[in-house]
Amino acid sequence: MTYCVKCGFKNEPAARFCIRCGAPLLAPVTNVAASGQTSFSAPQTLVTDSVSLENTSAHSLPRNAPAESWFAKNKKFLLIFSGVACLAWGINYFFFRPRPDEDGKAAAEAICLCGQQSTQEMLKKRKEFLENYNNYHFTSLYEARQKLDSLDNDARQAYSACLEKARSFQEEKMRKYTMNPQAASIFNEQYYKQQQLCNQSPGAEGDKISAAVSDKLSNFSPYKPVPPPPDNTKQIEPPVTDLSQTTPPAEADTSEHTLTDDMIKQRIGSLYEEENNIGSSQEAISKIMSYYKFPMTRYYDARNVPADALFSIYANSYLKSLSYHKVDNFQDKITISRQPNGDVKAIVGCRFEFSTSQSPDAKRIRNVYNVYVLDKEGKIKSVYQLL
Q1: Can you give the residue ranges of every domain in the chain?
Q2: Deepest of 137, 216, 227, 324, by most Cβ within 10 A of its Cβ?
Q3: Is the pLDDT of residue 249 over 70?
């Protein structure tokens, strides 16, 4: 055992410093004598320089010296790395962070914009119809309506293309929140709130143009070609004829547009057949638009319905709200009467079978009487139900 010369504490033989006071221990000197006894040399100080014990401990190698040295060498790298990490976080937060409220509003605005553009395009086409009306040289009201329907159809096709893109944009935004019900709820709330703010009304100018078109068609007069001016270079005496023997020119034959009862039944039956075959096609809806005269006086509870509004009603009802629909009309339950102004009123017994998208397995049946008012050309200008 080794004893401390300062405090006398008994330490292990291999110890170099006192466990109690920390003083350096004397190294034992072993002399092998003949007697086999071990003796110790005179006390000698193990540390011979003037450095004290405290200074010796202070200048010993610190444990964290390698780590401090590494941080000092890589300080510039660490600063750059920290800056890049903060920049990446900021970009992700401000540009890629999910925003269900803004996405829902943007989806609704895209669909609303399609409706507004469609309204403006349809007004543009009708204004074109009015400006070139005299140049079309319509010989019958049927030709005039066909031309107007053709112009309106161009606007409807543009609306269908725009709406398809807007729906794809909406579905793309909604997919981001499929696994987050709370975010999906915020998205839907903002979507429907923004839809209520959407204004697709044609305004006063649109109403004025629509009224002018209706006035043109209501007061239609067939085109009569103007005879060329007489050739004054040839002074030819016209032959003398007996005017009493001549027959007046015949008026334009409009008998082909006179609606018989069978034609009315067939037209309403064709309308129901088109509605049953809509499926998921917007082109089929565009075809159905040709059965109506716009703006409609009444479509069930709505008044003065333009073409784009009726298109939206069909799209929302048949492509979204309903998962199944079928309409049957009973030919034996139809009453036809003719109005003094030439319109035809048809009361039709109908059987509606349908299922909603929310309850696709629950089929519902309704038996109602629909009232249709058709003009002389067979266009439906009003439809409602008898209560």
Answers
A1: 1-47, 100-218, 259-385
A2: 216
A3: no
